Amino acid sequence: MSSDELAANLRIEAVPDDQWEIVAWLWQAFRHDLAPIVNGLPYADGRYQAAELKNYPSANGTGYLAWRPHPKTGEDAPVGFALVSGLQEEKRSVAGFWVTPAVRRDGVGLTLATGVLRRHPGPWSIGFQHDNLGAGVFWRAVAEIAFGAGHWTEVMRPVPGRPDVPPDHFIESASAPSERRPPRG
User: Fold this and answer.
1) What domains can you pick out in the chain, each with its CATH number?
2) Which DSSP category does 58 fall into?
3) Can you point out the beta strands (E) in 15-167?
4) pLDDT digit string (tens) for 14-29?
């Protein structure tokens, strides 16, 4: 399947109450991917920390799932998620974002990220870890598309309570996302 076909078959939907368990499963894959960067280990029950998920859904936070047909069954399969916080605050924030490795070079992440940003007007603050080089490249590309050149900055802030690790990076937008669409292909 080409990138255009994948993008055409991609659906981004707000997480309904009965699908937060799907987000919790995907969260484990997200934390597994992040483990080498944050020196994370699973807890005694074999699962990674998931305390952040207790904040969702709420008046201040929501989530989105990206779906596309499974290549073997044709049934809908979740291929990514995004968690948004700060809905009642001055700035929105991406609190969690993950796309399954099998579709990471197919435009799914870019479509999910820009689609979610457009759904929530207002300025954004999007953080990522200093050592997560792929996330840096990805979020800078998203910022160029969503906010436009010259309408975002990147700042570094110390990680609270962790003077032993490099500061986190934050993409800060000056305004709401634009209506520009990500390039296909």
Assistant:
1) 3-173 (3.40.630.30)
2) B
3) 61-69, 76-85, 92-99, 124-128, 152-157
4) 999 999 999 999 999 9
